[in-house]
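Dear H.,

Thanks for agreeing to be a second pair of eyes. The structure we're designing against is below in token form, covering all 232 positions.
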């Protein structure tokens, strides 16, 4: 809950970059997000190249990215942004509700996706969810993402002690598809504590979202096949 005795300072707000080639849609997205007390729209981009440039310069917390844009598509822009600024989370706006299509977005490094038919409150909730380490993906998509990640051989990295015991435990529960609240209840911890642990996990794995953390955890041997049995 926001404190009642003052507004959040700029540095405490969730910083968002909007990327869409339609001015009217950008305006609508800007109005929906910037009207929230805990959010700030830092800038808008009208094409993929501008989105990459602004994301690398401004380092927003979340980029709300359209798929079809001039110069660079949303998927290409997502790949480039993740190479330059891996800690930036990207929420894709798409008109397509297809699992294979969604997996392609995730392979590019997107944190999740939202259909363009969604309401403004859904967009606000999705942006907050990403920032909190929650999932904005359908469970079926998460399950298929895990299956695909399991097909890639585990990389030989010296990451066995990268995460603390508690962080490894939380990542395993994330891989089972548990929400922050479910993890908190399971471990008898507060949701604030779970969010703090997820932030540390994301920083250590150099990722910006739950889906990325799961995939990297599998590929680095930090999450085992047994951890994901219930989901796949």
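And this is the sequence the design step returned. I haven't edited it by hand at all.
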């Amino acid at each position: 809950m926001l404190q009642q005795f003052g507004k959040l300072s700029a540095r405490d707000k969730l910083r968002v970059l909007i990327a869409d080639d339609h001015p009217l849609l950008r305006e609508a997205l800007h109005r929906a997000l910037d009207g929230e007390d805990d959010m700030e729209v830092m800038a808008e981009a009208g094409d993929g190249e501008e989105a990459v440039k602004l994301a690398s310069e401004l380092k927003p917390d979340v980029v709300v990215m359209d798929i079809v844009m001039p110069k660079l598509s949303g998927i290409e822009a997502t790949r480039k942004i993740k190479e330059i600024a891996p800690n930036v989370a990207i929420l894709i706006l798409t008109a397509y509700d297809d699992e294979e299509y969604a997996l392609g977005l995730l392979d590019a490094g997107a944190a999740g996706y939202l259909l363009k038919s969604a309401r403004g409150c859904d967009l606000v909730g999705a942006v907050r969810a990403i920032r909190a380490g929650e999932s904005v993906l359908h469970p079926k998509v998460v399950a298929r993402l895990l299956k695909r990640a399991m097909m890639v051989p585990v990389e030989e990295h010296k990451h066995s002690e990268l995460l603390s015991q508690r962080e490894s435990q939380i990542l395993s529960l994330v891989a089972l598809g548990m929400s922050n609240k479910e993890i908190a209840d399971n471990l008898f911890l507060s949701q604030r504590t779970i969010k703090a642990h997820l932030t540390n996990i994301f920083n250590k794995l150099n990722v910006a979202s739950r889906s990325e953390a799961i995939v990297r955890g599998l590929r680095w041997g930090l999450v085992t096949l047994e951890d994901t049995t219930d989901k796949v």
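Two observations from my side: Confidence is low (pLDDT under 50) at residues 1-6, 228-232. The first strand starts at residue 14 and ends at 19.

Warmly,
E.
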